Amino acid sequence: MSEAHRREKQPEQVRRSLLDQAARCAVDQGLGSLTLQAVADAASVTKGGLLHHFPSKQALIDAVFQDLLQKLDAQIDRLMSEDDSKRGGFTRAYIDAFFQVTLEGSESPWAALSISCMTDPHLRALWSDWMQKRLKRHAETDDHSDLKIARYAADGIWLANLTETNGLSAKELDALREQLKNLTK
Amino acid sequence: MSEAHRREKQPEQVRRSLLDQAARCAVDQGLGSLTLQAVADAASVTKGGLLHHFPSKQALIDAVFQDLLQKLDAQIDRLMSEDDSKRGGFTRAYIDAFFQVTLEGSESPWAALSISCMTDPHLRALWSDWMQKRLKRHAETDDHSDLKIARYAADGIWLANLTETNGLSAKELDALREQLKNLTK
DNA sequence: GCAAAGAAACCTACCATACGGTATCTTTAT
DNA sequence: ATAAAGATACCGTATGGTAGGTTTCTTTGC
């Protein structure tokens, strides 16, 4: 049946798979009706195996969220290092990061972040903290109402792409991105 | 015990109460952990009574959502009738409606709409439909990329206000709204 | 005008199931 | 040998839903 018992054990890989599949399930079924069994199945592990890696459901969810936040952090830092002009550097990176995520479609684990963020007050706080820290860190270059609007619009677009059954076309998205980035100049 | 059995029956009123309380519960506990019992209790009806009005949990949730969408529709229509310039009329009404909702804070039944919208894929589709119909209806006056960005930004702000533990200040919100509406001219 | 019948509104009691979590056992790696 | 990885079996509970009863409203026949 499950092959995890017979194959070579690569716990790190299993852990990764669990995180990814959990994110995926959260998108498909909504975090509320997310079930340990479903996640375990999707990762080809039994529920017991899952609970070995994450001692509770909440622990799993938290881990997913932290993982995604970490990736987002890295992504933004990378994008910022490629940006030579100072003003709005963070905002541009933010926009690009979000569009990149958006392009990956609703199957991307990133989509889970948003959903989790709304549902769970605890995660909401985490996100809020992250954002506020980041804003404070780049206050000198990115504290302007135009930039604020650009960031909010990026959020909205990202949200829309989750919401719409048929996401926006790549062409539309590209045009929107250009327009937003123009706002940051 | 429950007096619903002895009092004069006013099914319409009970139905309303069920919808309202369901919305309220969805805000408090999150839609995921929304329970029929809790809603029934809040409306002073037994679970059986609730299930008489709404044959399933999903039916109840859908009804709540539809109800709120209907209210939003009316609100937007009203705002549009007060707007004399043509271009961007819908977008301005959309922005105003969302800011009005945002100002009411997270206790408003509208907050439930948003959360539900993210969580439940089925509701996501309903919202998407609503939006697309509305956009088609106002294609002549509101199909422009600037307006699109303004709407997305409104979504983002609304989202941020749900997300942030301490919502944005009324002053900030006002400034943002003005700025957005300027984009629609 | 008024029973009687039928439908609608609502309640009580119950079932089935699915879910999170525990306890324990087997297999693999070091 | 020991610990980690993973599987299996099981438990308690809460929840959505069903069945069928009881009370109130509405319609119909006379």
Q: Can you walk through the features of this model?
A:
2 copies of one chain form a homodimer. With 185 residues, chain A is mainly α. The first copy, chain A, has a single domain (3-183), classed as Tetracycline Repressor, domain 2 (Orthogonal Bundle). Chain A is 74% helix and 0% strand. Chain A has 10 helices and no strands. Chain A has helices at residues 11-29, 36-42, 47-53, 57-81, 89-103, 110-119, 121-137, 139-142, 145-163, 170-183. The mean pLDDT of chain A is 86. Chain A binds a DNA duplex (30 and 30 nucleotides) through residues 1-2, 4-6, 8-9, 11, 14, 35-37, 45-53, 55-57.
What sort of overall outline of chain A do the alpha carbons produce when their principal axes are compared? elongated
Order of helices and strands of chain A: HHHHHHHHHH
Task: Give me the Rg of chain A, rounded.
Answer: 18 Å
CATH superfamily descriptor of chain A? Tetracycline Repressor, domain 2
What is the makeup of the main sheet of chain A? none
**Annotated CATH architecture of chain A:** Orthogonal Bundle
SS class of chain A = mainly alpha
Classify the fold: give the CATH topology of chain A: Tetracycline Repressor, domain 2
Quaternary organisation:
homodimer
Average of the residue pLDDT scores of chain A:
86
Stretches of chain A where pLDDT is under 50 for at least 5 consecutive residues are none
Helix segment tally of chain A:
10
Number of strands of chain A: 0
Query: What fraction strand of chain A?
Result: under 5%
Count of folded domains of chain A: 1
- Termini separation of chain A comes to 57 Å
What's the CATH class of chain A, please? Mainly Alpha
